[in-house]
Amino acid sequence: MSARYPRLLGDVGGTNARLALQQAPDAPIEHIVNLPCKDFAGPQQAIEHYLAHVLPHTGGMRPRSGVVGIANPILDDHIALTNAHWAFSISALRDALGLESLRFLNDFTVLALSLPGLPASDLVQVGGTEPMPDKAKALLGAGTGLGVSGLVPVPGTGQWVPLEGEGGHVTLPAFDEEEARVLSALRALLPGHVSAERGALSGQGLQALYQAHCRLAGATAESLSPADVTQHALDGSDAHCVAALNTFCAMMGTVAADLALTLGAQGGVYIGGGIVPRLGDFFLHSPFRARFESKGRFGAYLARIPVYVIHSAYPALIGASRA
């Protein structure tokens, strides 16, 4: 094991790349740095920039192996990020960095691996009762995109198998007539396919919801960033932003409940990503939980399932270490 250390750990999204080092199997994850993806032509340039700054503080030994979670499906040796400009070969990157091994996994697959080890202090529970310890756990999170994963238990072993998929790109459903009108407006804005990610549950989705609510109200949408929409909603300064964020939370409830039913996630539903953890009390008092339980005959089934908002600073790096 020691021959594979120091180990490079990474969590790459559509906006930022978080990098760290681990010196030994039981050593802490150290030297965590957050780098904007747009500032680098690709992962090699970002990693070399990172190493140039941290190696003088670690004795100068370059990493021997690496495990990186990335916001993309991993289908073969070539990766082209869905929500950023990076495109590269895993094997060529491994050789260029001089690593003995380099693994890339979907970022939410990596994040799922962190769930069993997250302390209670890093989780905020939103409804439900106690989780069932040997049942599947569901995971989703909105940020630059919408990540979806889960953990399935291996009976009798205490081990877990993480799921790797692209559930963020499922078709966005409408729960009622009001959401059907919102969805109709979204189809006008996003012709072709309104996915859960593009239509609602991401930064670009939040912008689309704001524009859809403006369209329905006959108002002119301003040029607002996702952060602007969120802030105007949280401070109550723009009614269309408030409506957009409430719709975001409700639709998050629909998609989370669908995932919980699909996986039988009596072990709990976990919400990560960059958006929901920043909403604080707004999310707690939003339509999320009521919508989560609004599944007709299976409302009681879902009412038992606890939902946790993840507030750990770098949980995906923990998952990369476990991977």
TrEMBL record:
Primary site of residence: cytoplasm
Catalytic activity: D-glucose + ATP = D-glucose 6-phosphate + ADP + H(+)
Broadest EC class assigned to this enzyme: transferase
Entry's localization field: Cytoplasm
GO cellular component, one term: cytosol
InterPro entries: ATPase_NBD, Bacterial_glucokinase, Glucokinase
Membrane-spanning ranges: none
Xref: Pfam families: Glucokinase
PANTHER family attached to this UniProt entry: GLUCOKINASE
HAMAP family noted in UniProt: Glucokinase
Family membership noted in the UniProt record: Belongs to the bacterial glucokinase family.
Protein name listed in UniProt: Glucokinase
The organism of origin for this protein: Aquabacterium olei
